[in-house]
Amino acid sequence: MEVILLDSVQKLGTRGQTVKVKPGFARNYLFPRNLALPATDGNKKVFQENERHLIKRDMEVSAAARARAAKLGDLSVSITVQVVPPRGLPKLTAHWRLGYNAPIE
Asked: Residue 4: which of 32, 34, 28 has the closest Cα?
């Protein structure tokens, strides 16, 4: 069965490609997840018309991801942990910054 991919699918293809897949894979995986359409003449025309909308959606998603990354880039998290060493040694307090392996002094 030939399908038009609406989104990139790992080990299958990228958006806009027409690929051959088994009917069960298309029916049970690709179609319910809106990853593909059957490759009919009508669907090919509809896909070409909607390609601009898909590109716009991708740009909005990437802009939102960049904004979220910028917001999280300024985020600082500090975690204080009490460490109890083996017998007889005093308790130690360590401050760790999330994402780093070196303690903050």
From this structure: 34
Low-confidence stretches of the chain (pLDDT < 50) are 100, 102, 104-105
Residues 6+ apart with CB under 8 A from 35: 5, 6, 7, 9, 29
Q: 40-46 — which CB contacts under 8 Å span 24+ positions?
A: 43/4, 44/4, 44/18
Structural tokens at position 75: 């985020």
Whether residue 78 contacts residue 99, with contact meaning beta carbons closer than 8 Å, is answered with no
Q: How far is the C-alpha of 81 from the C-alpha of 101, rounded, in Å?
A: 14
Rounded CA separation 79/16 (Å): 47
List the chain domain ranges: 2-73
Superfamily of domain 2-73: Ribosomal protein L9, N-terminal domain (3.40.5.10)
Q: Which of the 8 DSSP states describes residue 23?
A: H
**pLDDT number for residue 32:** 95
